[in-house]
Amino acid sequence: MINSVDYKKIVFFTGAGMSAESNVPTYRGKGGIWNKYNWEEYACQAAFDQDPEKVLKFHEIRRKAVLGCKPHSGHFVISELENTHPQVIIVTQNIDGMHQRAGSKNVIELHGSVWRLKCPKHDIFEDIGNAYRNYRCEKCGTWLRPDIVWFGDMLNHEVIQQAISAISTCDIFISIGTSGIVYPAAGFPEIAKNNGAFCIEINPEPSVISHIYDQNIRECASVALSQLFKDISI
Ligand code: APR
Questions:
Q1: pLDDT for 93
Q2: What's the whole-model pTM score?
Q3: Could you say which architecture CATH assigns to the domain 25-68+116-148?
Q4: Burial of 82 (0-12, 13-18, 19+ CB in 10 A)
Q5: Distance, CA 218 to ligand 1 centroid (Å)?
Q6: Which tens digits make up the pLDDT trace of 126-158?
Q7: What CA–CA distance (Å, rounded) separates 228 from 59?
Q8: Are 208 and 233 contacting, i.e. CB atoms less than 8 angstroms apart?
Q9: Is the CB of 93 under 6 A from ligand 1?
C-alpha cells in the first residue's frame, strides 16, 4: 500500500493495458489491434496519403468502440487521487480519452487523441462522436487527419518536454499496462529511475522493461490500484 502523502509528485504512466478492463482492445498480445489489422494499412502517414478515407473509416470504428466502453475503478482511483493530492500527473500513451472521462484533468497525451482531427494547414480541433463530422477541412477542403501519433511520426516536441519534466521530478512513478516496446515512451521509466523516483510496474505479464522497476505488481490495473491506494474511496 502507498501512503500518497509520503510523496510530493506522483506520475502515472499508462498504456493500453490501463484501458483493457474497460474493454478497449490493447495493441499487442491476445485480442490486440495489430493482430487483427496491419498498421501499415491503417496507422501511418503513407497509408493515409494512399487512401485517407480507408484510414478515417478505421478510426471511426475505433471511436465507436471506445464510446461503448466506460472507465473502470482504476481510472477513478487515479482521478480521485488527483482531487486530494496536489501533484498527480498522468502521462498516457492512450488515445482513447478514458482518463479524462473518469474526471482526470492533468493528462499528458503522448500519442494524441482519437477525439481530435487536424488540418495540415489549419487548426487541430475536437470532434466528439462516433463518426467524424467532416472528412475534409471546411476552410480548404484538404483531408483531415486524426491527431494521433502514427508509426513513423515524430512526437510533439512540447508534449515530450512536459512529460519529461514531470517524470524527471516525480518521486514515485507508477507504470500501468504498457509493453515497453514503443519509444520514446518506453524510455520514460528509466528517466524516472535515474532521477531517483520509486518505480512500480503494474502489469499481469512481464514486459521487456520489467527489470527497471523497483516493484512489479502482477495484477490487473483495477485490482493493483485499489490495493496500492486503499485510502482512496471511489
Ligand atoms: N492491467 C494492466 N496491464 C494489462 C492489462 C490489465 N488489465 N491487460 C493487459 N495488460 C498489459 C499487457 O500485458 C501488455 O504488456 O498491457 C500491455 C499492453 O501493451 P501494448 O498493447 O503493446 O500497448 P502499449 O504499450 O500501450 O503500446 C504502446 O504502441 O501501437 C502503439 O501507439 C500505440 O500507444 C501505443 C504504443
A1: 98
A2: 0.95
A3: 2-Layer Sandwich (3.30)
A4: buried
A5: 14
A6: 999 889 999 999 999 999 999 999 999 999 999
A7: 35
A8: no
A9: yes
Chain-centre distance for alpha carbon 169? 20
Ligand 1 mean position to 58 CA, how many Å? 20
The full set of domain ranges for the chain reads 1-23+71-111+155-234, 25-68+116-148
Atom in ligand 1 nearest the alpha carbon of residue 220: 1
At which residue does the C-alpha cell 493530492 appear? Answer: 85
Centroid of ligand 1 to alpha carbon of 98 (angstroms): 14
Homologous superfamily of domain range 1-23+71-111+155-234:
TPP-binding domain (3.40.50.1220)
Residue nearest to ligand 1 atom 5, measured at CA: 17
Is the beta carbon of 205 within 6 A of some atom in ligand 1?
A: yes
